[in-house]
Design goal:
Strand content of chain A: 15-25%
Order of helices and strands of chain A: EEEHEEEEHHEEHEHEHEEEEEH
CATH topology of chain A: Chorismate synthase, AroC fold
Distance between the termini of chain A: 28 Å
Number of strands of chain A: 16
CATH superfamily of chain A: Chorismate synthase AroC
Helix content of chain A: 10-25%
CATH class of chain A: Alpha Beta
Oligomer: homotetramer
Amino acid sequence: MNTFGRKFRVSLFGESHGACVGACVDGCPAGTPLQPSDFTLDLQRRQSGARGTTARAERDVPELLSGVFEGKATGAPIAILFRNENTRSGDYAELLSHPRPGHADFVAAHKFGGHADYRGGGHFSGRLTLALVAAGVIAKKLLGSATVTSTILEIGGAKYGAHSAALEEAIAGGDSLGGLLECVVGNMPVGWGEPFFDSVESLVSHIVFAIPGVRGVAFGSGFAAAQQKGSEHNDPIVSPCGKTKTNHAGGVNGGISNGNDLVFRVAVKPTASISAPQQTFDFGKDRVGELRIRGRHDACIALRAPVVVEAATAIALADLMLLQAR
Amino acid sequence: MNTFGRKFRVSLFGESHGACVGACVDGCPAGTPLQPSDFTLDLQRRQSGARGTTARAERDVPELLSGVFEGKATGAPIAILFRNENTRSGDYAELLSHPRPGHADFVAAHKFGGHADYRGGGHFSGRLTLALVAAGVIAKKLLGSATVTSTILEIGGAKYGAHSAALEEAIAGGDSLGGLLECVVGNMPVGWGEPFFDSVESLVSHIVFAIPGVRGVAFGSGFAAAQQKGSEHNDPIVSPCGKTKTNHAGGVNGGISNGNDLVFRVAVKPTASISAPQQTFDFGKDRVGELRIRGRHDACIALRAPVVVEAATAIALADLMLLQAR
Amino acid sequence: MNTFGRKFRVSLFGESHGACVGACVDGCPAGTPLQPSDFTLDLQRRQSGARGTTARAERDVPELLSGVFEGKATGAPIAILFRNENTRSGDYAELLSHPRPGHADFVAAHKFGGHADYRGGGHFSGRLTLALVAAGVIAKKLLGSATVTSTILEIGGAKYGAHSAALEEAIAGGDSLGGLLECVVGNMPVGWGEPFFDSVESLVSHIVFAIPGVRGVAFGSGFAAAQQKGSEHNDPIVSPCGKTKTNHAGGVNGGISNGNDLVFRVAVKPTASISAPQQTFDFGKDRVGELRIRGRHDACIALRAPVVVEAATAIALADLMLLQAR
Amino acid sequence: MNTFGRKFRVSLFGESHGACVGACVDGCPAGTPLQPSDFTLDLQRRQSGARGTTARAERDVPELLSGVFEGKATGAPIAILFRNENTRSGDYAELLSHPRPGHADFVAAHKFGGHADYRGGGHFSGRLTLALVAAGVIAKKLLGSATVTSTILEIGGAKYGAHSAALEEAIAGGDSLGGLLECVVGNMPVGWGEPFFDSVESLVSHIVFAIPGVRGVAFGSGFAAAQQKGSEHNDPIVSPCGKTKTNHAGGVNGGISNGNDLVFRVAVKPTASISAPQQTFDFGKDRVGELRIRGRHDACIALRAPVVVEAATAIALADLMLLQAR
């Protein structure tokens, strides 16, 4: 459902073209310093503005509605609201009968009996990640010296930085591109993770796969581990604090952080909304027909995803950190 | 922690060299037919016996301790117990001061203040998957016509079936191999999944990453999606029931099953316990030293993993199925 | 924490003298009709305005921020916000060093390290019940033909309706009164309740005891049952649908509703904030001293409690109803 | 369902006349000393053996199946099993068509479609409290200096100790008696409880109402609070550590423990199974008919309830204690 976490608990709400998106964050320890300006950097990183990202301009000003008093968390739930301002709902009406390939249009209409808010993807929109990023800002503050850093490795198969040609080609063709990200958590303490079921990988993948567009999550050597020998993959411990010579495990053994960097990669699919025509089922005409998607869309959502992956990771780790406290 | 699921809820307990491993399964609908022989096939698949799997011989007879009456689930929790019989705990004492690379030895000792049962990996042992497979047998019964099938694609980078040479080489060298699996759920209904946070991918990856040795989980096109264009990746809908021409999404849009096969791949690392000598920190001697692991181990745990991945998947899906019921 | 429920899930946030109070309601089935006017009656009942209730005048207009589209629930979380308008925070500053007897002032300061919002009781204020009542309005819509009705039986030990003299005396003396309520759920279906731990009584008492000021909850014969014989207390079944001749059980056997009315009583303590002087510890002066509480308070919160108890009950039952669906 | 708790989590399973009853306890901190003899005293207290308690003789020997190693908790789940030995299932077959008043027979058959194990009440039997008491033994060990003590105040309306005549009369008449208990937790620290929804009263009442036969739970002054004035009910703070002059609140303000004794009363109904004939619906004959219950039953379950209430309370408090740790 729309809540994640046991002791640090994030609930999301809102729609792309409704009144707002927001988050309710419960379990933030009292005394944590918190003010609106803390959110600025990560919210800007999410907006990006880079070539290949949406033209929808939102100010994304966080309203801290509760749980903060005199610049500090009170221990009560922190409700954060972002009013939607720049909405153009007229763009979406035809998608009711002609659902977009790769989108939640069809499943949402099915699951919710035709009552889902379809405008701009409604509750399934990437705009929900705005609230996730805001909750992540709070989570990051709880992690002590642990640092969560996510970067783009590739866009459309090209190394990040050398991806301009592929991106321009996609934009020109009304197409979109996927991307590959890496997330590294430095200064991870030993001992976070609650196996059997709530391993570090379990909670991190749970929340990262909730981010729209994520297709794969892999820790350490990831899928390459399937091709390795144990003598190659095993990470010899080289110091009493648990530091290892290599980090093929990605910082986790037996579901518990081992004191090395937590490292994982995330595959982000290309944006589903492309302006190039697509042949897909038209429920209005009861046959396959051509769909041309209008509206403003990112040519590559991966470009905006690093801070979202960071937020998701920080939320999972904040919960694990509080869970392991005795 | 050691419980997974909201309406179909599985709790695991036990240790590799303790009295038993077991599961407590809550939420199985009353009337579900259930008898000990239902477990035989999947338990045998987990034992495998194939070249490259452990010599530890256990009968693995399930005791159905509760929740079953006259061959049917009663609606009360189903406790299942497997007594450990073939244990050789003497093999493990030295690992206390010389933790194995790639194992939970070090983190377990750290997290649990030296009180973890270290014998045979204790609660971190792959033997816990015995209880998971048993719970999965129950879960599979709840899925109606949906079928969960997991197969091995590769062992040590070689195509499954053509992996003998690589395996023999690893065994001869006291080494181990990883493997790549695919899991396909056929006859998936439309509408399972509870986003934002409890998407199909989120719950499936959560529980699959709880399986010891899993390094990566990727749906549909997986990591290849990061290199695709939207026009390649999008799956056009071609029928009113939601069937798509391709299945790059792996059967899920917006976190909700779309009526196509659920498809994902799982990367399994090589077994950490290898008999070849390893240089790793010896806490007894306070310096890096040579470790030679004794005991009986699988040269390739991926060979035994398909039924475990099936069980995990079935458990997550049974929960999602019950959660979406109104 | 600040979330209740498994499938019908209510999260509360807000403070008495902060920006707002609100609720985030997840799990409301799509298609449930919902509009702002649905809240009017119950919100007015909570305001009461009766003699003995607070002079704080709030308009209590619900903002439906999300999860509702074209007059119906969409299946996404429903966020409801009430802006605080009539706040006088200056009344409360001295309570920091001189906590009120019977209030959360002392424990909140202790638990949250001095960071709790103390103004008007902050997150501990009875004003939070505004959000609870709003969530209850939604819950009531889900219960089908089941009706939740709470009434006042006694005020200050006097029969309701004949309590004027006691109330006037309390008001004149700067004092307050407790009260006794009864809640009856008619048309209860057989089969709600998820024992062992999630019995009807368990979930109802859990949420009713979350209402500020509740001291006791008792089902059916309640505490009188302790004085009865089995031959008196047992309710003989007199019809095949489970109707019983008497209802000493209060409509529940073995934690599961039995098809008779659910009946329970709730004891509400007298309002803690009284204007009469009280001798209590003054942390500023480090000794017991006289406290005179200013501000606007209800002389009897029980007068406003029926609709709050109804809301809490409806929320618990909505969750149980959805949990028992297969 | 059959699990309680978030960080200290107890799952119950088993049936009265099945193979066993048991508990799976997750979240017990590693290093907690634990051995079979720790359970002896509380298990004996539950057996009681006093006049008015059942003649069913069980040895109730706990098997510690997992999570304990070398006399200490390992941090892994602790599974505890009690084999049933003295069962006489033949006594119960007729209850299928002639459900007992005051019992779960009717609702269990309805909810579980006729598949519930009806023998001896099955999963609804008071025998499940055996597993609860065992889990409570572990919980009590976690509470530090806090002590949980439950005593009987009244039996059948007579003061405990002076109840012999009433009890003998009930036994002679094939009848049963209810009882009134008080539970006091001494040395309660300030700050346990997680309001809004997880107040101390909420969690304690949740689990206490899960005990079969409990009709009412009331804290401090309890239902008498409804008749009090604020000037009478308020507890003035008289020391800087929060000690109060009186304890009408029962040790909790705003849902959080205030450092005084936690005090509450529990009303236990008379045993439903009485041997005196009862007129109740006979589904076999489709009309009201006389039921004569055979089998061995307690004339007064309240006599055995104190240790069960203690266990339930300790479990709730252990969870709250671990939840408040940072």
